[in-house]
Design a protein that fits this description.
The protein has about 160 residues and is an all-alpha fold. It has helices spanning about 15-25, 35-70, 75-80, 85-110, 120-130, 140-155. It has one domain (about 10-20, about 30-155). The termini are far apart.
Length: about 160
């Protein structure tokens, strides 16, 4: 594996974002187009989630590179901040913080937007499944995941 040189840390390409959304363990097709606000909000949330996952991967690769190249974990905070290459890491941190805030605001909007169709219900379940995550509460995650898949299948 080649070292992820600092120039690889930014920016994310459109292709990478589209690929991440396609590779998500959710069926984005389950929340296809519709005028319902819950569907639109869920789509926006899922897109932000995909972006965050890509940035986390970039952050991890850059941190590994900094550890190998500069002994990152042996440096104190002032030394870490002084590294030019570390500025990209801090920029990614800031972007991740922004995405987290945007996702939280979208979840608040989704909670206050009543589902007006089965697609809206499915959209909410897809976001709930992602929020639960299989590692946090495996049974609740599986229950929500099964519910949205079964609802999708029942409704065709």
């Amino acid at each position: 594996m080649r070292d992820p040189a600092p120039q690889d840390a930014l920016p994310l390409s459109r292709r990478a974002l589209i690929g991440a959304a396609a590779a998500m363990p959710l069926s984005l097709g389950a929340v296809q187009s519709g005028p319902e606000e819950a569907v639109d909000i869920a789509r926006s949330w899922l897109a932000k989630r995909a972006q965050a996952r890509l940035w986390m991967g970039r952050w991890s690769r850059l941190e590994t590179w900094l550890a190998r190249r500069h002994g990152w974990y042996g440096l104190d905070e002032a030394q870490q901040r002084a590294l030019d290459a570390a500025q990209r890491l801090y920029a990614i941190d800031a972007r991740l913080d922004g995405l987290e805030a945007e996702q939280a605001a979208l979840v608040e909007r989704l909670v206050s937007s009543p589902a007006r169709s089965p697609k809206g219900v499915i959209a909410k379940l897809v976001v709930a499944e992602e929020l639960l995550g299989p590692e946090g509460e495996p049974h609740a995650h599986r229950l929500v995941a099964d519910a949205w898949r079964e609802l999708s299948a029942v409704l065709g």
